[in-house]
Write a structure and sequence with these properties.
Length: 229
């Protein structure tokens, strides 16, 4: 499907945006919080490049990966679970302090949100980032006013790639499958959109667990959100 086909005559509709890697380059803050946590645990820091590849399934999975030092962590023993629980609490405390310190809005994001708003589009953030961190980040970066709804990774009982958060946002904003589009950077976004039955635009500049988005089966792939205009 072409971009023109996605943003068709049935608009204005509902646009659902992923946050990390799509709207905001937040990996530097996440990496700083992960590394501070690892250091507090007496471990070696992971570094930005690894952390960038671990973002997208929410903070608990990010910390599981950080403790394992790799993306595919193994199911843990009870002792590992205790360490993980402590590490997650420490990560939350660290990220609360670091959230927004180095994060920047990707080029093309603001013109896109501005244009969609002018068209009367209803816009939501649907992210796996825990909800407590989303509002402060959007506010600090001056994006808050564009969004009518924030769905975080712990807002509901499921997170992406489950379609639940997308369907919740679509229904809350009174959208329909024909007039709702998801925009994201990773397999979690494309899979969630496919399971929800709504089209998905994938951006090439995000995280996607270190892999290209070309093979994900998104309905359109763009290098900048300004291409959506
Ligand atoms: O994994 C996270 O914490 C957030 O990722 P998302 O904004 O790309 O959904
Ligand atoms: Mg993302």
């Amino acid at each position: 499907m072409s971009l023109a086909g996605l943003f068709n005559a049935r608009w204005p509709g509902v646009a659902l945006f992923d946050l990390d890697g799509t709207l905001v380059d937040s990996a530097p803050d996440l990496a700083a919080a992960v590394d501070r946590t690892l250091e507090q645990l007496g471990r070696k820091p992971a570094g930005l490049e690894k952390v960038r590849q671990w973002v997208g399934h929410g903070s608990p999975i990010l910390m599981r990966r950080a403790l394992a030092g790799k993306a595919d962590w193994e199911p843990a023993s009870a002792a590992d679970d205790a360490l993980f629980n402590d590490a997650l609490t420490m990560f939350f405390n660290n990220y609360r302090q670091l959230n927004g310190q180095h994060a920047v809005v990707f080029p093309g994001v603001e013109p896109c949100l501005e244009a969609l708003t002018r068209l009367g589009c209803r816009i939501a953030v649907v992210t796996n980032k825990p909800e407590q961190f989303v509002g402060p980040l959007l506010k600090q970066l001056g994006l808050e006013e564009y969004f009518r709804l924030v769905v975080g990774g712990d807002t509901l009982s499921t997170k992406k790639p489950d379609p639940g958060p997308l369907l919740h946002a679509m229904e809350t904003l009174q959208g329909s499958r024909g007039t709702t589009v998801m925009v994201g950077d990773s397999a979690a976004d494309v899979s969630a959109a496919q399971a929800a039955g709504i089209p998905c635009v994938a951006v090439t500049y995000g995280y996607n667990f270190g892999r290209s988005v070309q093979a994900l089966g998104a309905d359109a792939v763009v290098d900048s959100l300004s291409e959506l205009l």
